[in-house]
Write a structure and sequence with these properties.
- This protein has helices at residues 24-27, 29-41, 166-169, 171-176, 201-209, 214-217, 219-222, 318-334, 336-345, 362-379, 381-384; strands at residues 45-49, 58-64, 67-73, 79-83, 98-99, 104-105, 112-113, 119-121, 147-151, 154-158, 185-186, 192-197, 230-235, 239-244, 272-277, 281-285, 289-297, 303-311.
- The strands form four sheets. Strands 11, 12, 13, 14, 15, 16, 17 and 18 form an eight-stranded antiparallel sheet that branches.
- With 386 residues, the chain is of the alpha+beta class.
- The chain is built from eleven helices and 18 strands.
- The longest helix is centred in the last third of the chain and has 18 residues, at 362-379.
- Helix 2 (29-41) crosses helix 10 (362-379) and helix 5 (201-209) runs antiparallel to helix 10.
């Protein structure tokens, strides 16, 4: 595959003079591979949610940028991420979500692993009836674990192992939302859905970062949480998004609402915030529920959005949860034609990445600048020598 080296100098300019990322960052397979390493593997990328494996022994295979991974809740209740391959011949271990009873057994030669990743059994490895061999040190052949961290129930991974500790890389955001650092209860089957979108994953982030499009793309939402009710959230080189000073709780026919999270400050009586945790996790917080969207890239022009909703209590109304899910699904689905339209637009050879409104696009510009920073760092001779 030939490598396309893009010019990112105009992206790094102040917003008044900056262009967006070049077309190749949305349509070129070589650039997609470059970002795979520099943006998604070298940083803390979202993979899944801990609610995907709710009980000890639960295991779920996940493919992330073609890498086969296994999300497991071990017997002690810790969520861990392993490469989903046997250390013997690289066979896929688990091909569908299931409960691990006893051990993770390779279907090829029956090597077995504990839910903590230890290699515990190697049948006939020394010949028929001989389950050990001096050349096979089980202590060195456990499953390959991927560095992971859980925050707001999202499972983040750092494939390269080179990123700063998650708590350091995201200290400012964690402090900003410290009031939501408490148990979050996934709403269950009626509080999760996926959207398959024909666009580059970055376009979903860019659209989420700004409220500029609300009057035209989300007229229903804009009818009560208007464009002028929104404010920018801008933390250069860290995160960005938007907030609103007007949040209206959903109610049932009897006026019932979801219970609030305990201990929230008065700000959250009416406010809500929506922030991108760079690179690929979109989070929203409200007085009575939160949501997480994990964007899983499946190529330069395809993204799967995994959406999960959380509440302050495990005991909430099924009907109200279903209504809340349906409302958010409608809002997120309204964005699909926009991001898919921008994706098609990236094949226009005369497009130079576009310009930013200095008043309205600050959070989106910060995301572009961060992407460009990661790519340029990866290209630098100093990084290559690491």
């Amino acid at each position: 595959m030939s490598k396309t080296i893009t010019d990112l100098s105009t992206v790094r300019r102040p917003i008044e003079q900056a262009n967006g990322l070049p077309n190749a960052h949305y349509i070129d397979a070589g650039v997609f591979e470059e970002e795979r390493q520099s943006v998604l593997f070298d940083n803390w990328a979202g993979l899944a949610v801990a609610a995907d494996v709710p009980e000890p022994g639960d295991a779920r295979p996940v493919t992330f940028l073609e890498m086969p991974l296994l999300l497991v809740r071990d017997t002690r209740g810790q969520v861990r991420v392993f490469q989903n391959i046997c250390r013997h011949r690289g066979m896929i271990l688990v091909d569908a979500p299931r409960k691990i009873e006893g051990a993770i057994r390779c279907p090829y030669h029956s090597w077995c692993y504990g839910t903590d990743g230890r290699l515990v059994s190697t049948p006939h490895v020394g010949g028929p009836g001989q389950n050990t061999h001096e050349g096979i040190d089980r202590t060195l052949l456990g499953l390959i674990e991927v560095r992971s961290h859980i925050w707001m129930d999202v499972v983040y991974i750092n494939v390269s192992g080179t990123a700063p500790a998650f708590e350091d890389a995201n200290a400012d955001l964690m402090a900003r939302w410290s009031e939501f650092d408490k148990p979050l209860y996934h709403g269950g089957a009626d509080s999760r859905f996926t959207l398959e979108v024909n666009c580059n994953w970055k376009l979903a982030v860019e659209n989420y970062c700004e409220s500029y499009h609300l009057p035209w793309v989300h007229p229903g939402l804009n009818s009560y949480s208007r464009l002028e009710d929104h404010y920018h959230i801008e933390a250069p080189a860290k995160f960005s998004g938007q907030g609103t000073e007007v949040y209206r709780q959903i109610k049932d026919e009897n006026g019932l609402v979801f219970p609030d999270f305990d201990g929230l400050s008065e700000k959250w009586n009416t406010a809500a915030e929506y922030i991108t945790v760079y690179p690929n996790v979109l989070l929203g917080v409200h007085r009575d529920h939160t949501f997480a969207i994990v964007l899983v890239p499946e190529g330069p022009a395809r993204t799967v959005e995994h959406i999960h909703l959380y509440y302050a209590s495990p005991e909430t109304s099924h009907d109200l949860r279903a209504r809340n899910t349906a409302q958010w699904k409608e809002v997120f689905a309204e964005d699909v034609f926009v991001v898919e339209g921008m994706q098609r637009g990236r094949h226009a050879t005369g497009f130079d990445g576009g310009r930013f409104s200095p008043a309205m696009d600050g959070p989106t510009h910060l995301f572009h600048d961060w992407i460009a920073t990661q790519v340029e760092r990866h290209r630098s001779p100093a990084h290559a020598a690491e």
